[in-house]
Amino acid sequence: MSSEAQHAEERVVDTATGAEAPAEISEERVQHIFSNIAKQYARFNAVSSFGLFKGWLRKTVDAANLTPESDLLDLAGGTGDVSYMAASRRPPAHIQLTDFVPEMLDVAREREAAGAACGVPIDFEVVDAQEIPYADNSYDAVTMAYGIRNIPDRMKALREVHRVLKPGGTFACLEFSTPPNAVWRFLYHIYLKVMIPFWGQVFTHDRPSFVYLADSIRAFPDQEHYAQMLRDAGFSDVSWKNYAGGIVAVHTGHK
Ligand SMILES: C[S@@+](CC[C@H](N)C(=O)[O-])C[C@H]1O[C@@H](n2cnc3c(N)ncnc32)[C@H](O)[C@@H]1O
């Protein structure tokens, strides 16, 4: 990656376009979108990914190197998909489930009340991943699924993740990415442009928000660029695995 491209990643961006812009534009849009779709989020995910999203969550949880002693911080945790997958698959000692949008955490709390945490102690807090209110070196693992793409100052968030991880800790990050195969990428971009806004209209009658989701996926750095951002934030042994031909990737980095 050129130093110019590296510098470009330091910018605060409009997450819909990747162009430099004040953070408030993206932050206000995220509040609007996710407070509106919180209740329909699970159905939208299941349908728009053809049910594949659960497998990707499993891969993310497996990548986080959880043990029964781990303290897990789930950032941009939304309605709890990663946290509850971790609780059922590789139960840690404690989960801190956080998100920027209170309405998403309200749904997560309802799921916990229905038993989704499988007995794992869990705390909820509204947290901006760009300013994590926890001490240095406090978590064994940090997870983030589909969060970093929605954050305008991504380097600030990644440095914060690195700061709160304990030495030896793991960051596992699931995000939409760039299929390396040109034909698959072309078909996928058509799906993003046409079908994601369609599902959005069906589920929430809020087509513009889903046009945003599709735009933000296209504007997000590809696998190698994002890996470089993780290295620049201080992570070592950065690697990634593609799933569904690179439609999503799970990046991991260690402190
Ligand atoms: C697509 S949802 C993913 C939720 C969850 N991780 C999952 O896999 O279902 C993206 C989430 O990122 C959250 N988010 C956006 N910007 C954030 C920020 N600056 N700090 C923390 N969370 C943020 C949104 O509120 C939303 O809940």
TrEMBL record:
<keyword id="KW-0830">Ubiquinone</keyword>
<keyword id="KW-0949">S-adenosyl-L-methionine</keyword>
<keyword id="KW-0474">Menaquinone biosynthesis</keyword>
<dbReference type="GO" id="GO:0043770">
    <property type="term" value="F:demethylmenaquinone methyltransferase activity"/>
</dbReference>
<feature type="region of interest" description="Disordered">
    <location>
        <begin position="1"/>
        <end position="22"/>
    </location>
</feature>
<comment type="function">
    <text>Methyltransferase required for the conversion of demethylmenaquinol (DMKH2) to menaquinol (MKH2).</text>
</comment>
<dbReference type="InterPro" id="IPR029063">
    <property type="entry name" value="SAM-dependent_MTases_sf"/>
</dbReference>
<protein>
    <recommendedName>
        <fullName>Demethylmenaquinone methyltransferase</fullName>
        <ecNumber>2.1.1.163</ecNumber>
    </recommendedName>
</protein>
<dbReference type="GO" id="GO:0009234">
    <property type="term" value="P:menaquinone biosynthetic process"/>
</dbReference>
<dbReference type="InterPro" id="IPR004033">
    <property type="entry name" value="UbiE/COQ5_MeTrFase"/>
</dbReference>
<feature type="compositionally biased region" description="Basic and acidic residues">
    <location>
        <begin position="1"/>
        <end position="13"/>
    </location>
</feature>
<dbReference type="GO" id="GO:0032259">
    <property type="term" value="P:methylation"/>
</dbReference>
<keyword id="KW-0808">Transferase</keyword>
<dbReference type="InterPro" id="IPR023576">
    <property type="entry name" value="UbiE/COQ5_MeTrFase_CS"/>
</dbReference>
<keyword id="KW-0489">Methyltransferase</keyword>
<feature type="binding site">
    <location>
        <position position="79"/>
    </location>
    <ligand>
        <name>S-adenosyl-L-methionine</name>
    </ligand>
</feature>
<feature type="binding site">
    <location>
        <begin position="128"/>
        <end position="129"/>
    </location>
    <ligand>
        <name>S-adenosyl-L-methionine</name>
    </ligand>
</feature>
<feature type="binding site">
    <location>
        <position position="99"/>
    </location>
    <ligand>
        <name>S-adenosyl-L-methionine</name>
    </ligand>
</feature>
<dbReference type="Pfam" id="PF01209">
    <property type="entry name" value="Ubie_methyltran"/>
</dbReference>
<comment type="similarity">
    <text>Belongs to the class I-like SAM-binding methyltransferase superfamily. MenG/UbiE family.</text>
</comment>
<comment type="pathway">
    <text>Quinol/quinone metabolism; menaquinone biosynthesis; menaquinol from 1,4-dihydroxy-2-naphthoate: step 2/2.</text>
</comment>
